Amino acid sequence: MVNIKRLFSIFMLVGVALLPLSGAVQAAEKFKPFVLAFKGPADFDAKVNETRDKLKSEGFRIVGEFTPYEGTHVDKAHVIIVTNDELVKAASMSKLGGFAAPWRIGITKVGDEVQVAYPNPIYIAKAYRLKTDLEGVNDALRRSLGAIETFGSKKGLSARKLRKYHYTFGMEYFDDVLELAEYDSHKAAVDAIEKNLAAGVGGVTKVYRLDLPNDVTVFGVARKAGEKGDENMDDAWIMDNVDFEELKTTAYLPYEILVDGNKVVALHMRFRMALHRPDLKMMGSNSFMNIMPSPKAVEKALRAAAGGK
Fold first, then answer.
1. What is the spatial distance between Cα 169 and Cα 301, in angstroms, rounded to a whole number?
2. What are the DSSP calls for 207-245, one per residue?
3. How far is CA 225 from the centre of its chain?
4. Which of 98, 147, 202, 226 is most buried (CB neighbours < 10 A)?
5. Residue 68 preceded by cis peptide, ω within 30
6. 53-74: per-residue pLDDT in tens?
7. What pLDDT score does 189 carry?
8. Average pLDDT for residues 275-291, to the nearest whole number?
9. Are the CB atoms for 251 and 119 separated by under 8 Å?
10. 78: enclosing H helix or E strand
11. For residues 63 and 207, is the Cβ–Cβ distance under 8 A?
12. pLDDT above 70 covers what percent of the chain?
């Protein structure tokens, strides 16, 4: 006859023994920076229109669109920027949360194929230290656009590493922002940036403006060097150097300028680029070495656009 008490004790011991393993498995979960929603033969313009319609049908509000480049490392590229109530609420709950309020969806034509991809909400929520994992945003994007796979890093990063992410020793963290300018008021800051972006100061122009509660405004900006400008700050030049793998990271763009009260800041490129491309090598072909002057050039351009010194 089976000894019930002994059997129960064995099950309890096994369960207790497995608890640390279960915790380790959860802690070891890895996340990657981008989600591939679609990849295959398609008409590019039709796919852009379809993507826009699907986002709207899922309750996203479109705040801007732009074509960062074409005929470079890809045949065509288009980015749609959206937000929704969950993103706006999440932004208001965390310091520097405004950087996460606009969401970017990239549509890219490479040869005979079109790709649709967007930053992984779970990954970004952890890296931007939000007080929510943006599960609702993640689900809404998956329902509207799809989710074939996550990509952008071979092994991915753990939640713990993302919360304190920096590329390597001496590199910037999320809150090591570029302090671009300071004004007497939020309105004065926003008005000055609007004027500078309209004039293309520093080769920087406006893609969108998103006004959030509590005197926070996010500008999405495009950067083009022009004939006499510094190519190291140029969107197309930078991405031509780093966006070399099969699955494209067009949705890295556009870059954000954040007006928080009367202060104007931006994420440091050495953080922002590394976060979106954590496997990028330090040296060699298609490496950070190729774009070594870019962080300083981008800072100079953004500072000019912000009206800073």
1. 26
2. EEEEEETTTEEEEEEEE---SSS-GGG-HHHHHHHH--S
3. 22
4. 98
5. no
6. 999 999 999 999 999 999 999 9
7. 98
8. 91
9. yes
10. strand 76-83
11. no
12. 91
- CA–CA dist 309, 307 (Å, integer): 7
Q: What is the dihedral of CA 178, 183, 184, 185, to 10 degrees?
A: -80
**Of 107, 123, 116, nearest in space to 36 by CA:** 116
Q: pTM for this one?
A: 0.90
How many Å from the N-terminal Cα to the C-terminal Cα in the chain? 85
- Domains identified in the chain and CATH numbers: 30-162+170-306 (3.30.310.70)
* Span 120-173, pLDDT tens digits: 999 999 999 999 999 999 999 999 999 999 999 999 999 999 999 999 989 999
Q: Is 94 exposed, middle or buried (0-12, 13-18, 19+ CB in 10 A)?
A: middle
The DSSP call for residue 70 is: B
Give the tens place of pLDDT for each residue, 17-41.
444 444 444 457 999 999 999 999 9
* Sequence-distant (≥ 6) Cβ neighbours of residue 22 within 8 angstroms: none
> Who's near 107: CB < 8 A, 6+ residues apart?
44, 47, 48, 51, 77, 78, 79, 80, 114, 115, 116, 250
Instruction: Tell me which DSSP letter residue 150 carries.
Output: E
What mean pLDDT value characterizes the chain?
A: 92
Chain centroid to CA 215: how far?
22
Which position has the token pair 């520097």?
A: 96
Query: What are the helix (H) ranges across the chain?
Result: 4-27, 44-57, 85-93, 121-127, 135-145, 159-163, 186-199, 235-242, 269-276, 294-306
